[in-house]
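Annotators were shown the component list below and the corresponding predicted structure, then asked to write short factual statements about the assembly.
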Amino acid sequence: MPEGFIAGEPMSGASFAQCFARCRADNRAALIPFLTCGYPDAPQSLELLQGMAGAGADIIELGIPFSDPLADGPTIQRSSFQALERGMTTEGTLDVLRAFRAGHDTPVVLFSYLNPILRYGVEEFARAAVEAGAQGLLLTDVPAGADPALESRLSAHGLDLIRLIAPTTSPERVAAIARAGAGFLYYISRTGVTGARTRLRRALGREVRAVQGRVGGIPVAVGFGISTPEQAADVAAAAEGVVVGSALIDHCEREGAEGVRDFVAALREAMERDGPDRSL
Amino acid sequence: MTPGARTAGDRFGPYGGRYVPETLITALDELTAAYRDASADQGFAADLRVLLEDYAGRPSPLYRAPRVEEAIGAGPVYLKREDLNHTGAHKINNTLGQALLARWMGKRRIIAETGAGQHGVATATVCALFDLECVVYMGTEDVERQALNVYRMELLGAEVRPVDSGSCTLKDATNEAIRDWVTNVRDTHYIIGSVVGPDPFPRMVRDFQAVIGEETRAQLEAAEGRLPGSVVACVGGGSNAMGIFHAFVPFGDVRLVGVEAAGEGLDSGRHSAPLAAGRPGVLHGSLSYLLQDADGQVAPAHSISAGLDYPGVGPEHSWLLDEGRAEYVTVTDDQALAAFHRLSRLEGLIPALESAHALAHVFEAGAELARHGPVVVCLSGRGDKDVAHVARLSGAETDE
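Structure shown to annotators:
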C-alpha cells in the first residue's frame, strides 16, 4: 500500500439511490468528478479523492488506467500513461479505494476498459471491487448487451453496471439500456472521445430531456467536454448529474491538488447557485 | 470439420463480438445491414467484379516456383501472386469492396489505419477513384520506416496523420482511427485493413479477401487436378491468411498454416505472435488472442515488418487455432530477412517482408509440407516498399 495511507475503520459507501435522493432533496444535480487512479501517483490520487469528497463531490469516478484508452482524448490518455508508468495496476486502484473508504462514504464508480478486468478475472474482480468499497462499474468498451453472460457475472456481487447512452443511440435502444441499467445512466454530451471543450452543443438540454422521457426515472448524468463551472451549471439545469473529467486533470497538471479542490468547490457552488430551473 | 459453419451471429466460437464505445453501436448496426443488403445485390457484386478484374488486375496468377522447389528439394510449390495486384498487395481486394460499400451507404469521408502503409495506400487509391475524402492514421515509427508509402498516399490525395502515442505503431494508429470514427461517425466510414475490429469487420474483410482462396482453388484444380496439401500465409491481423484459408476451411485434409512474426525470438519478449505466446483479451473491439502483461495492459509488439507489428490478431484465427483447424508457427526477423533475400535471388521476386515470413517457413519446412501434396504460399505483397529499409539494415550490418 502506498505510503501515507490512513488506517482506520472502513466506511461502506452510500448507494447511488441514497445519493441522488439527497441531491433531489437539496434541489440540485449530483457532481461527479473523474480521476485516473495513479495520476499523478498513488498517494496523490488518494489525496485528490479525499479533496474532491471534501469539496463537494457527490459521486466519484475512479479510472483504472489502461494502455489503449480508445474512448479517451489526449488528457485522459496522458494521465493513464503516466499512471501506468508509475506502476498503477488494477489491484493498486482497489488499494487506493480501500484507503479512501477509511474516511469517506462517497459512492465510487470504477471506470475502465474490459481487458484489465478480464485479466484480473471477472468474478474475482466483481467481488474484490465490492469488497474494496465500489458501488458501480463503467466499462467504456462493453456497451449494453455486448456480452450478456459477462455483464451478469460483473453485476452478480452487487456492482451496478453504469451504462452509457450516446447521441447516436436509437430511442428504442435507450429504452432497452434503461431497462437493464442500474444506479444511473451516463449520457455522452457529444459524439467523440473524452476531453474538455469550450462550448457545449445547443441541443444538449433537449436531448437530455428526451432521454429522461424514455428511461423510467433512472437518474441521468451528463459528461464529456464539461470544463467550466458555467457549463456545469448549464448541464445541471437539465440533468440529474454532471460528470467532469479531463478538465480536472488539466487543473491538476497546472495547479496540483489544491487547484483540483478549488475547482471541484467552484463546480459545486455554480451548480447549487443556479439550481435545476430546466431552462437549458 | 467446418468451424466456419459453427460460428453464429457476431462471433467465431467465443471470439469476436462488439466491444466498442456505445457511440459506434448504431453505425455498426447500419454497416451490418448495408453489408447484408449489398452482399445480396447483383449490381454490387458486378461492380466489384469489374473493379477487381479491370482495375486491380485479378485474377492474380498462381505461379509454380521451380527454383524454390529445387532449393527445398521437394514440390510442387506455388506462389499466389497477390504482389501483382494494383498497389502491390492483397489489401486492394478489401478496400475496393469497402469503398463500394461506403458509396452504397452514402458516406463521403473515409478513415483508415496503416502499419506498413500498404493498406493506407490501397485506401488512398480507392478514395481517389471514388472521389472520397481520405484520412490515414499511421504511427510515427512507421511513418519513419515507410516514408515512401507516406508520400504515395499524399500523391493520391490522402491526408496522413502521424500518431505519436503509445508505441507509435499500428496498434496506436488503430486507436486513433477509432477515436476519429467515434467523433465523426455520422458521415465517416472506417475501412479497417484486416480481419480485426468489431463485428461485422472480421467476417466482412474476410469475405472481400476470400477471392484469393477461391481463385487458388480453381487455379490449382486446373494445374494439378487436386486440392493443395497445405496453404501457408503470414499472419499479422491475418487478412491475407483468412482470404486464402477461407475456401479451404471445409476441406479438413488441407493443412492451413499461419506464420506469425517471432521478431527477435519468442523468448526475447520482442515479437508479434499472440497466437503462439498471447492469451485471449479484448483490443479494438473484439475478443481474440492478445499480447498482454499480467495486469491486462496490452504489451508492445515487435517485428521487422511493420505490417505484422501488431499485438492482436483476427478473432477467426483464434477460433481456427482452438479448434485445431489451422496450425500457427513463427518465424524470426532474421529468418524473414534471409527469405527476403533468398526469394529475390531464386525467383527474381522481391517479396514484402510480411510475405517473407510465410516463405521462410516454406524454406524451413517445405519438404515436410510437400509430402501432403502441393504447397501454396500466399505471396501477399511485393517488397518494393521494404527495399530502403532492408538496405539500411544491410548497411548497418556491413558497418559493424
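Statements collected:
1. Residues 1-6 of chain B have pLDDT under 50 and may be disordered.
2. The CA atoms of residues 221 and 227 of chain B lie 6 Å apart.
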